[in-house]
Amino acid sequence: MRSIWNSAWSLLALANLFWAGNIVLARGLAGRVPPVTLAYLRWTGAFLVAIGFAWPLLRRDLPVILRHWKMMLLLSATGIASYNTMSYIGLTSTSALNALLLQSATPLVIIVWAYLLFREVPSLRQAAGVLLSLCGVAAIAAHGSLQVLAHLQLNRGDLWVIGGLAIYGIYCVMLRRRPKVHPLSFLVAAMGIGSCMMLPFMLMELAAGATIHGGATSWLGIAYTAVMPSLVAYLLFNRGVELIGAGPAGQSMHLMPLFGSILAVIFLHENLQRFHLLGIAMIAAGILLASFRREQSSVQRNVIAPTRSSS
Q1: Which of 80, 30, 32, 37 is closest to 208 using CA atoms?
Q2: Phi, psi of 187 (to 5 degrees)
Q3: Cα separation of 164 and 34, whole Å?
Q4: What CA–CA distance (Å, rounded) separates 29 from 216?
Q5: Sign for the pseudo-dihedral over CA of 28, 33, 37, 41
Q6: Which residues contact 44 (CB under 8 A, 6 or more apart)?
Q7: Is the dihedral of CA 77, 79, 85, 86 positive or negative?
Q8: Reported pTM
Q9: How far apart are CA 217 and CA 152, in angstroms?
Q10: Which is the most buried residue in 60, 80, 252, 267, by most CB within 10 A?
């Protein structure tokens, strides 16, 4: 386990696998679980699961967290409350495939925010890797056909997802400024704050007549979102950012469309075709190119040191 905890790309791959499952599942729950309610139950459930065994760490780190309350509010609002709620709203009117494809814009969003907030410029190799991975995602989304790619359209749901990604980019870049506490302490605190932020919007949604349908299947889906893509995936991703920085960690987001395609093969019985293999190869090559260590960019070097935990 220690070797995995110190292997950034193992952690990031697992995080993106759980997030891909979350997108596919959230699309399946659309119409049965209201989106804001799903986001609230996801993070409240994750907080309740984690607080029991995280409490000793959180109690120790609470003074540091309180001293950085402004940063905690920013990170909770961007990484927990806004991003996930907007994504779930988007998934009520767009396909899981579109949402997965749009995730590939995350590395570009991170690069833009890193420049706007910290005037950091990516290396040529990193930019080339992002572009290559984007081409791989496009190959999967378009089924290897330029004609299909040309007719892909953005709808209202896609715009919600894009807005959520733009906000999530702030979270990824600002993680370097998070309090220097244990990763689990930070995550549990952020989940608790984010849940409180979502509560009034969830109550407004329920007051408007929204209800949960689907019985045990819907509640099992909610339980999955509360554990794997929330508590587990965020802990893994935050550790990945700590190890290699926001830029290359953001590049791992290209794995989500890849894993989403694999999940569709397994659970939806879709056929794995040549364009899937082409896209997978291009995504992998782009990730390797962007994360090549010998030409580590200033973005990566500047991110790593400030985000290391003191414990």
Answers
A1: 37
A2: -65, -45
A3: 17
A4: 12
A5: negative
A6: 195, 226
A7: positive
A8: 0.79
A9: 32
A10: 80
Residue 31, both tokens: 């119409």
Helix H or strand E encompassing 158: helix 156-174
Burial 25-64 (b: 16+ CB within 10 A, else e): bbbbbbeebbbbbbbbbbbbbbbebbeeebeebbeebeee
Write down the number of H helices and E strands in the chain: 17, 0
Centre a 10 Å sphere on the Cβ of residue 305 and count the other Cβ atoms it contains.
Answer: 9
Chain length of the chain: 311
Nearest to 105 by CA among 175, 18, 28, 163: 163
126 vs 74: CA distance, rounded Å: 27
Q: Would you state the structure tokens that stand for residue 93, as one six-digit string?
A: 């009117």
Domains identified in the chain, total number: 1
Q: How far apart are CA 42 and CA 267, in angstroms?
A: 22
Range of the domain at 173: 2-307
Ordered per-residue pLDDT tens for the chain, 311 residues: 677 888 888 999 999 999 899 988 888 898 899 999 999 999 999 999 999 889 999 999 999 999 999 999 999 999 999 998 999 999 998 877 777 777 777 777 888 898 889 888 878 887 887 788 778 777 766 666 777 767 766 678 888 988 998 999 999 899 889 999 998 899 999 999 999 999 999 999 999 999 999 899 999 999 999 999 988 998 898 888 888 887 678 778 778 877 887 786 777 565 666 776 777 778 778 777 766 653 344 344 333 333 333 33
Cβ neighbours for 107, distance < 8 A, ≥ 6 positions apart: 130, 133, 247, 250, 251, 253, 254, 290
Distance CA 190, CA 298 (A): 28
